[in-house]
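LOG
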Amino acid sequence: MSATRVALVTGATGFVGGHLAGRLQSDGWETHAIVRPSSDATTLRDVLGSGNVHVHDGSTEGLVDILRNVHPEVVFHLASVFVAEHLTDDVDPLIRSNVLFGVQLLEAMTVAGVLDIVNTGSYSQHYEGREYSPVSLYAATKQAFQDILQFYSEVRGLRAVTLELPDTYGPDDKRSKLLSLLDQVARSGETLQMSPGEQLLDLLHVDDVVHGYEVAADGLLSGHLRSPSQYQLSSGSLVPLKDVVELYRQATGCTVSVVWGGRPYRLREVMEPVSPVPVLPEWQACISLRDGLAALNAESQEDTDGNR
């Protein structure tokens, strides 16, 4: 291993990928990222440097050039399109991002002689805790890529670890997720129409998530983790949706008006996130949901005070 380790991150303009790229950079990795031409990579270029942000032209040959030039010791693959319940127009982007781009990446790694990849999966590949039962087309595309990754591992010699992620949260989250929605309605005073709220949530702070990626990379590079292998990251604590809303109220002091049962459960709603794969060895979650929400509220208050 060289004195300065080299990493290549896909999905670095996203929430988890952006935090991971920043953490790798601050921890001493020479960190590169692949972005689409349409991506807003301004912040990413400020963090990594313009020369370390590589625009993919959509072709396999273009990825081969990037992999040859960067020649990372490990690729962190987080790029994906997520759709909870797809419409017909979602099919092409789901396949392009979650299957085609991933296969192009694996082929480029093979051609460039880059062997190690930490991939990203989802507990939604395990409806009701089954070995494989996709909650959605998104989950099915994640599994399809993992099946192809198995081929590249067995036949082309790539070394791979897949990390299954639960729901994630943390600072600078621009996604339309539960906590962002609670912030929005708390500010507006609107009433939020929600499901009956009996589902259990596994909410993992993004700092714990990115630490998991670093642990997985270290295990892969050192040979302590077998390849191909699959692990999950989990907070270790399942919290009912109704309790999450109450914890949000306690952390922020903001009461959110909620109509429980105002909308039905989704088709194949995950009532309890369960995965049959083991938790990543040598890793554990350190930030409780209560502490994570309190920290987010403190940061929000500091930002508000600083902008006055």
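LOG (cont.) second protein
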Amino acid sequence: MTNQDNRGEARAVIVISSHVARGSVGNRAAVFTLEALGFPVWAVPTVILPWHPGHGPATRIVPEADEFARFIHDLENAPWLGEVSAVLTGYLGGPEQATAIAGLVKTLKAHNPQARYVCDPVLGDKGGLYVPEATATAIRDQLLPLADITTPNRYELAWLTGMEISGTESAIRAARQAPPADVMVTSAPASSPDRLANLLVSETDVLRAVHDSIPSAPNGTGDLTAALYLARLLAGETREEALAKTTGSVVAILNKAAERGSNELMLETDRQILTRPEMSIEIEHVAETAEA
């Protein structure tokens, strides 16, 4: 069966991000989430760690650049490429990985123009970049222009666009400068310091899902959000439906982890929340100002 014949059955997602032995960050969060919602996954580790480095010193194993490139090239030429409906990328182990991934995305889209690429640009947070600047630059220059959707936090979006983000209007302006058609800004400013928002800026409108801030939230929230949103779009939901359910699931899972005192997301325990959000999130349609 050719890729063209197989295209209607494409459901697999290639997920390219970090792998930890303990915890639910990077590929561990994204793969579990996508599979829980019924999507087969081809998982590619960009770096292997015993745990999230935020927990303390951790051995870091990064594939050699040429070996990683050959691995990705094998996927480009796989006889099962017609199974693939999307690519999701997260944390990269080095700038050379972006070049290889860009080739894979281009090949997939040549086989299947309907395939989606979600770039979660894992670069840093309010403390600044936590990847080398060369890696951040490679994501900005090589991967972001290929993406259909990107899911930066507010600080990553500011770095990617060189624009200061102080509120909703400035976040919208920055999102409009990013190449992808759809930009979901996570941890976007809301009406008060104890509130945050997922702000989805598309070519046609701006949607906002506001929620309470959760102090000391476990790592992996961005990975979980990107995977959930992609899964719900692949399932045929509208942007508004996908944003509401994604935000509802993520906030409920974070609340559960906080109640348990866990320093990790507990996706295996809260699996049912991935498929059936316990929290209802109201979506606001944000009116844009002339400057936005």
